[in-house]
Design goal:
Strand content of chain A: 25-35%
Distance between the termini of chain A: 58 Å
Helix content of chain A: 25-40%
Shape of chain A: elongated
Strand order of the largest sheet of chain B: 2-1-3-4
Number of domains of chain A: 2
Structural class of chain B: mainly alpha
Number of helices of chain A: 10
Order of helices and strands of chain A: EEEHEEHHHEHEHEEHEHEEHEH
Structural class of chain A: alpha/beta
Distance between the termini of chain B: 56 Å
CATH topology of the largest domain in chain A: Rossmann fold
Largest sheet of chain B: 4 strands, mixed
Shape of chain B: elongated
Helix content of chain B: over 70%
Strand order of the largest sheet of chain A: 5-6-7-3-8-9
Order of helices and strands of chain B: HHEHEHEEHHHHHHHHHHHHH
Largest interface: A-B, 41 and 45 residues
CATH superfamily of the largest domain in chain A: P-loop containing nucleotide triphosphate hydrolases
Number of strands of chain B: 4
Oligomer: heterodimer
Strand content of chain B: 5-15%
CATH architecture of the largest domain in chain A: 3-Layer(aba) Sandwich
CATH class of the largest domain in chain A: Alpha Beta
């Protein structure tokens, strides 16, 4: 038994001369929630589409459920595309049953489950309402239900949270966790870090067409040093206090802010205790995923900017 | 049922219901009613015109009083033998008032086709058009009147007409049956198959295409859409068949059977009905329907494939003209083939896939071989599959993979600079 539901290797896609996706690999453990993070236009959607075999990669392969071609296991996959789409003339229940039927679910069973899901998500009011009469967020919830109504083993959601209000975002998180508990593997893309931080077992960060990071959320956060916020008890000479702190410590109001390596935590505490300036407040925390993400993306962008400048110089001299 | 077939029917069911369950469909269904009404109005007007014109025509003989009886008797005899009955004959007595035939021909108030004057042995015939049938008839009349007078009274003949009860094996009638089949299939596909060109536009517009592409093979999406449209077409035909049969039954109960029988003797349509296509009526109708379905599927698949490449509604509208011309072209080819069975052209039309259903339907009227139709249906089905396969390939490589560039012919040119520009813009903002 293979432990990975998704194994994509070296996926590459060109749009004309532009390399939209550059050797992206994804390995999603079975039964996990996996986030693909990246800025807008980084190549997340194209990567997911190639993973699912909707478009053919120019290079690389995608195998699901232990070596199967994506096209041969369609009925075990649920997919919410980035560009939402439903037939406006269909009723919600029919639309969900239709999407289920496409994946091989019986129509009547689809209708039954549709009503169940909708009631659970507070949408029982619009079960027999036509899609065109719904708000965008409602329609999106309908489509989401449609993509999981056949109880798939792999659920792929492209930007599932965008366009939802906080209440529905909460419901969606609940739904994702429950599907995972049912045994499904969930792969989703987002550029909102909060959801990824709460939900994901593992993440991959894609920027500028290529994968820049892969690992757990904690591993991503560990890329940056821990942040310390320290408030001394005695308002003495700032220079004397700073002498005990690492270089670059910054005084904002009463508190000092600075970054610190993991190994330096204990010596720092010892120095502060010994200094006699006292402690009214001290917090040592990992930076949020948000900061790690911005850090990674900025690094990548900086590399590209350097290239771009070189190109510009070459062009100017030519 | 394999997953492929099942998903095909899921798509077909959705399309069929989405089309049928709208008020617009009712308009579509009843549209032929307007056509029939317009046709009737036009037909009545035209026949009234013809009637009024017919009453005004005449031919004139200016004759010696001694010849008048003979001429009248001859006219009665000859008139019935003409394929097109000549205009009424006006016989005048030679006198000072009727000297100039040209003047008579120019008299106002009626159309005078020809005027004969002078002795019957050397008549002078003035006709409106050189070599007209009216002129020839008058010459024939003069000759007959003289011959009758010379021969004296003749014994009357009482012919006994007898029709061949199943004599409709006439090749001409069979050919016109073939042409009729070609025309009906062409008309139905022209009316019904053209819609497939826009049927993928809906999914592209509301982005459902990605759901479909992710969930089922695109081949089954295309085939399903085609089947859905075929269902609509068959419903349309069935509706009008039932209406026509119901109308026919009602008419049959209203009209005196004797009148039908009387009309049947004269009507050419009933003559065609009484005759048989070479393969027999049940087979001919059945195979005709089968060929309609394949013609619909073939042309529909082509249009669907072309329409799938179109980026906007405007492009689809622009495509409708070439599509109509293509259909008319196939019709002309098959019609020409139908009027020349067995010729090289006919064989070409029967083998060329897009005219094959039309031409083969015509062949069923004139050729009693049946096995060849099975071959033709198979051949056409292969082409349906081939067209679908190619359409899907084009669609996958062009439209779906094009990302932001929805047109397959510009994806390589347009997308790259746009992406480069976006990249430049984003790097500047940092």
């Amino acid at each position: 038994m293979n432990d990975f539901s998704v194994e994509a290797n070296g996926l590459t896609k060109y749009f004309g001369n532009y390399k939209a996706v550059d050797h992206v690999s994804l390995a999603v453990p079975t039964g996990s929630i996996y986030g693909v993070l990246g800025p807008n236009g980084a190549g997340k959607t194209t990567s997911l589409r190639m993973t699912l075999g909707i478009i053919d990669p120019d290079a690389g392969t995608s195998r699901l459920f232990g070596g199967q071609r994506p096209q041969s296991v369609r009925h075990r996959i649920g997919y919410l595309p980035e560009e939402r789409g439903l037939y406006p003339g269909m009723k919600a229940r029919e639309a969900i049953a239709f999407m289920g039927a496409l994946r091989g679910l019986d129509w009547s069973e689809g209708r039954r489950r549709a009503a169940g899901f909708m009631t659970e998500l507070g949408l029982e009011r619009v079960i027999d309402e036509k899609i065109r009469k719904m708000s965008k967020g409602m329609a999106q919830m309908i489509q989401l239900i449609g993509s999981i109504v056949h109880a798939p083993d792999l659920i792929v959601l492209d930007e599932p949270f965008s366009g939802l209000d906080p209440v529905n975002q909460e419901r969606l998180e609940m739904l994702v966790r429950r599907e995972r508990d049912r045994g499904a593997t969930i792969l989703f893309s987002t550029h909102v870090m909060a959801h990824a931080e709460r939900l994901c077992d593992r993440i991959a960060i894609i920027a500028r067409s290529a994968r820049r990071f892969e690992g757990t959320v904690d591993e991503a956060r560990a890329l940056l040093p821990m942040q310390v916020r320290y408030t001394p008890r005695t308002a003495g000479d700032p220079a004397a206090v700073a002498a005990n702190l690492p270089a670059g410590a910054e005084l904002r109001g009463d508190a000092w802010h600075f970054a610190i390596q993991d190994a330096d935590v204990e010596p720092l505490l010892a120095r502060i205790t010994a200094s006699g300036h006292g402690v009214t407040g001290l917090s040592i925390s990992r930076p949020a995923l948000h900061d790690a993400f911005v850090h990674i993306v900025r690094q990548v962008d900086a590399g590209f900017d350097a290239d771009a400048t070189e190109d510009a110089v070459e062009e100017a001299s030519a | 049922m394999t997953p492929f077939i099942r998903s095909m029917f899921v798509v077909a069911r959705r399309d069929f219901l989405a089309i049928v369950a709208t008020p617009t469909f009712l308009l579509f269904l009843l549209a032929p009613l307007f056509m029939v009404a317009m046709g009737l109005a036009g037909g009545v007007g035209a026949s009234q015109l013809a009637d009024s014109a017919r009453g005004a025509g005449r031919i004139v003989v200016v004759a010696d009083p001694a010849d008048i009886e003979a001429l009248r008797a001859s006219d009665q005899r000859l008139r019935t033998g003409m394929t097109r009955e000549p205009a009424p004959l006006d016989i005048r007595i030679v006198g000072p008032a009727n000297v100039d035939p040209v003047a008579i021909a120019r008299e106002k108030g009626s159309d005078t086709y020809a005027v004969m004057s002078g002795p019957l042995t050397a008549p002078r015939i003035v006709e409106r058009e050189k070599g007209s049938s009216a002129g020839r008839y008058l010459a024939l009349l003069a000759g007959d009147a003289q011959r009758a007078r010379a021969a004296g009274p003749m014994p009357s003949i009482t012919p006994d007409f007898e029709a061949l009860s199943s004599g409709g094996t006439s090749i001409a009638v069979q050919q016109s049956l073939g042409f009729g089949a070609v025309f009906i299939i062409f008309l139905l596909t022209l009316l019904l198959a053209g819609q497939t060109v826009s049927s993928l536009a809906e999914e592209k517009g509301n982005k459902v295409i990605e759901i479909l592409a992710a969930a089922v093979p695109l081949e089954s999406v295309f085939l399903g859409k085609l089947l859905g449209m075929l269902g609509v077409a068959v419903l349309f035909i069935a509706f009008w068949m039932i209406v026509a049969m119901g109308g026919g039954l009602i008419a049959a109960t209203q009209v005196d059977p004797a009148a039908i029988a009387a009309a049947g003797k004269a009507g050419k349509a009933t003559a065609a009905l009484a005759s048989m296509p070479a393969t027999g009526w049940p087979f001919f109708l059945g195979i005709g329907f089968a060929y309609f379905i394949l013609s619909f599927l073939l042309l529909g698949a082509v249009f669907l494939g072309i329409g799938a490449q179109a980026g906007s509604v405007r492009e689809i509208q622009m495509l409708s003209l070439p599509i109509t011309i293509f259909q008319v072209g196939m019709f002309s080819l098959s019609a020409a083939a139908a009027s020349a069975p067995g010729s090289g052209l006919a064989h070409f039309a029967q083998i060329f896939p897009f005219s094959s259903p039309l031409a083969m339907a015509a062949r069923a009227a004139t050729d009693d071989a049946k096995a060849v139709h099975l071959l033709a249906l198979g051949w056409q089905a292969i082409w349906v599959a081939l067209v679908i396969f190619l359409s899907v390939r084009l669609f996958r490589s062009g439209v779906l993979s094009g990302g932001s560039g929805w047109k397959f012919w510009s994806r390589n040119k347009a997308v790259a600079p746009a992406a480069a520009a976006a990249q430049a813009a984003s790097s500047q903002s940092h």
